[in-house]
Write a structure and sequence with these properties.
This protein is an alpha+beta fold. It has ten helices and 20 strands. The protein has helices spanning 2-9, 34-42, 46-50, 89-100, 153-157, 216-222, 224-234, 286-306, 312-337, 352-374, and strands at 14-18, 31-32, 55-57, 59-64, 67-73, 84-86, 106-110, 113-119, 125-132, 135-140, 144-146, 163-164, 169-177, 186-191, 194-200, 204-212, 252-254, 259-260, 265-266, 269-271.
Length: 384
């Protein structure tokens, strides 16, 4: 959506296909980081964006046991917005779609599900076939961009295979009502052998309980009562809200992946975002990396797309530009995940010397974490 908006803004005719009728789904990423807010400001849209319902988190906290620790502090970042904006991704997508529609070159096709690729005799991708309300349609294009996520249909149709790095966790995703006196700035909780994420969405918490990969059947076998009791053990303030979980249908399994395409493109096709590099939820960086990919793609390809002269070398330039930050962040995520559980299942098992070292370095770590999460590596700026 961001790429379509940027290219249409630059005069490139774009069709964005969305297979659903709307965007009202629970996405993994609802954190809009300072780097993305900076891009929105560069587009002159920050005031309108921040008028949407959202919560602002200038710093994040983590509770370990019964003790609260300060986490990343974004107030020192060299950006206009020194906070993370917590906003449902469906609102972000609606916002970008509305901005795109200001330009005659932007075309959004809802209920347009890609079912095939148009391939020329020399192997070049020249468009897509899609199921729509009006039947099957063919969209011819000088460039097809796969931005359809970690289970990318376009990527699979193109025969591109990812390299998987393996992570030992999955996440059970659910929402619980929020009461006025409950804490909102605490992002993560580690207590009684469990790790849980609590994202403040105004009148409710979007919660993620981290489990070992493949353990979902065992969790369900223990029953909903045991699941609810585990939540209360981890976050006692949710004791009243947790009763609303009355069915496993309210709890979704998010399969955590960290993977990357060795080559992000083939003639006529480019993969960006999770289609090129699936990220774990650690740091909430996935949506923001995807937006950075979109800006870099518009910057590097916009002029040649206007001239209808995009080459394989142009597509390779996008991968060269974006692969380094992806590699660095994925390496950090894999490192963290592989140390999340000790041999007996205890979360984050740190030795006494390690805990003391972390305590001494906390102010520096908070700033470093804020930079890593809030800005990342090789930030992009709108130049198209």
């Amino acid at each position: 959506m961001m790429l379509g908006f940027l290219l249409a803004r630059g005069g490139v005719d774009v069709v964005v296909l969305e297979k659903h009728a709307d965007f009202l789904r629970d996405f993994r990423g609802d954190t809009v980081h300072p780097s993305t807010l900076e891009l929105i400001a560069e587009l002159g849209l920050l005031e309108a964006f921040l008028a949407l319902p959202h919560q602002e988190a200038p710093r994040l906290k983590v509770v370990v046991g019964d003790r609260e620790y300060d986490g990343p502090d974004f107030s020192h970042l060299p950006t206009r917005c020194k906070f993370i904006a917590l906003m449902p991704q469906w609102d972000f997508l609606d916002f970008l779609a509305a901005q795109g529609r200001r330009f005659p070159a932007f075309h959004l096709l809802m209920r347009g599900e890609v079912c095939g690729l148009v391939e020329e005799e020399d192997g070049r991708i020249a468009g897509v076939q899609a199921h729509t309300d009006q039947g099957e349609v063919t969209v011819h294009a000088d460039l097809v961009v796969a931005a359809d996520g970690r289970h990318s249909t376009v990527r699979e149709l193109a025969g591109l295979r990812v390299r998987d790095f393996g992570v030992p966790i999955d996440v059970l995703w659910f929402r619980l009502a929020k009461r006025a006196d409950e804490p909102s700035a605490v992002l993560g909780r580690v207590r009684n052998g469990r790790i849980m994420i609590t994202l403040d969405r105004g009148d409710y918490f979007q919660c993620g309980l981290i489990i070992r990969k493949g353990d979902v059947d065992a969790v369900k076998a223990r029953g909903l009562d045991a699941f609810r009791a585990g939540i209360v053990d981890t976050a006692p303030f949710l004791r009243e809200s947790v009763a609303a979980l009355s069915s496993w249908d309210q709890i979704k399994l998010l399969t955590v992946q960290v993977n990357r395409l060795p080559i992000w493109y083939r003639p006529g096709l480019l993969c960006i975002g999770d289609a090129a590099h699936a990220m774990s939820p650690a740091g909430g960086v996935g949506i923001n990396l995807a937006v950075q990919d979109a800006v870099a793609t518009a910057n590097l390809l916009g002029e040649n797309l206007r001239r209808r002269a995009v080459t394989d070398a142009d597509l390779a330039a996008v991968q060269r530009r974006r692969e380094m930050p992806v590699r660095l962040i994925q390496a950090g995520q894999v490192f963290i995940h592989r140390r999340m559980f000790g041999p007996h299942g205890e979360p984050f098992p740190f030795s006494w010397p390690t805990r003391k070292l972390i305590a001494l370095m906390l102010p520096l770590l908070r700033r470093a974490a804020a930079r890593f999460v809030g800005i990342g590596f090789r930030t992009e700026h709108v130049s198209s």
